[in-house]
Design brief:
By secondary structure, this protein is of the alpha/beta class. Helix content is about 40%, strand content about 15%. The protein has a seven-stranded mixed sheet with strand order 2-10-9-8-5-3-4, with helices on both faces. Strands 11-14-13 form a three-stranded antiparallel sheet, with no helix packed on it. The chain is globular, with a radius of gyration of 20 Å.
């Protein structure tokens, strides 16, 4: 069932048991699906996300992670509000594009792609602009693999009494986060990331008291976060429109496997070890990482091209033929490629990867 390992930040390599969970059909109106699958998922997501589950709720939304980011911004930030987006990569920039589509009053605070978001600069801006109502940031910016200092950012945002929206697409489930302790109000992620499910839906974990105030704010029918939540609440797991049933059932299996592994802390430890083995092996071969170790997440690692004549396409195809699929680079400042450390992959896989890369280099 595995022609190659996906060393990417999602979709990623899943277990055979997650794939097998999609082999049954489910009725979207049946209690076996809504109560025993959807509602269990919603409850478990909140328990993973926060030490105060009574203060939060989860909404599942069809589509990719970007659908969920758009649903959140379009349903939470009113036309009279002002949004500050702190960005150091493509996914922060995408929040700005969404804001343009929705005519949201938005300021983009831009940092270099290789530079973490600076919480103190956010603090300075908020002091000068008290009219800001919402702040959004990407936790792990997979453009480079940089891990932004979420707790520092959250502390600043909450000290100013602003609503904090976090794109935790590539970190939730693989990097420990406590929404209540940090003061995060809305957190967004996707089924096919660190929970290790498959693509098809995403989810928003929201502070219940704030979400309850969002009725009628949305500018989109399909992406109305409040309405989706209200239907799920009143319908005990019912979706407004056709649910991606097979993907949802696979996600429930993935959640059970996360629990069996030892939870987020254990998965984080595995991802960190994957990253450590990868970097150690690649540096031994002469490759240099784009980011310094203190800025790097365990999710995805960027490497400089080893030489000016490096042919990434040829490198990619040789690796694929030997069972590994990696990512091209995504920044404009340098020629890079990226290797994901998440999914159903283990340190031994990265030992093998670096061995294969060494073989390719000698051909």
């Amino acid at each position: 069932m595995r022609p190659y390992l996906l060393l990417t930040p999602g979709p990623l390599t899943t277990t055979d048991t997650v794939k097998q969970a999609m082999m049954s059909d489910w009725c979207t109106w049946d209690e076996d699906y809504n109560l025993d699958i959807v509602e269990v998922i919603r409850k478990e997501l909140v328990e993973i996300a926060t030490s105060c589950p009574e203060e939060y709720t989860a909404v599942l939304m069809q589509g990719s992670g970007s659908f969920c980011v758009e649903a959140t911004l379009g349903s939470v930030v009113r036309s009279t509000d002002k949004l500050l987006v702190a960005t150091n990569g493509a996914y922060g920039k995408r929040m700005g594009v969404i804001s343009e589509y929705y005519h949201i009053d938005c300021h983009m605070m831009k940092f270099e792609e290789t530079e973490p978001v600076d919480a103190m600069k956010i603090d300075t801006y908020l002091k000068k602009h008290p009219e800001v109502t919402h702040v959004s940031v990407v936790h792990c910016e997979t453009t480079t693999g940089v891990l932004n200092p979420l707790e520092e950012i959250a502390a600043v945002v909450k000290s100013h009494g602003k609503v904090l929206i976090v794109d935790a697409m590539s970190s939730f489930g693989g990097v420990p986060i406590d929404m209540a302790r940090s003061g995060i109000d809305f957190m967004i992620s996707s089924a096919n990331k660190c929970i290790q499910g498959v693509p098809g839906f995403g989810f928003i974990i929201a502070r219940r008291s704030l979400l309850e105030q969002c009725k009628g704010v949305a500018r989109s029918l399909s992406l109305d976060l409040y309405d989706q939540w209200e239907v799920m609440e009143k319908g005990c797991g019912k979706w407004r429109f056709t649910s991606p049933t097979h993907v949802v059932r696979a996600f429930m299996q993935a959640l059970s496997e996360l629990k069996a592994e030892g939870g987020v802390k254990a998965r984080y430890a595995r991802y960190c070890e994957n990253h450590r083995i990868l970097v150690k092996g690649m540096r031994a071969l002469g490759y240099k990482t784009l980011l310094s170790d203190d800025q790097q997440s365990p999710v995805i690692t960027s490497f400089y091209y080893p030489s000016s004549g490096f042919n990434f396409k040829e490198f990619y195809l040789k690796l694929k033929a030997r069972g590994f699929v990696i990512y091209p680079g995504k920044i404009s400042q340098a020629d890079t490629f990226r290797i994901g450390n998440i999914g159903d992959v283990y340190p031994a896989d990265f030992v093998k990867l670096t061995e294969v890369i060494k073989e390719i280099m000698t051909i």
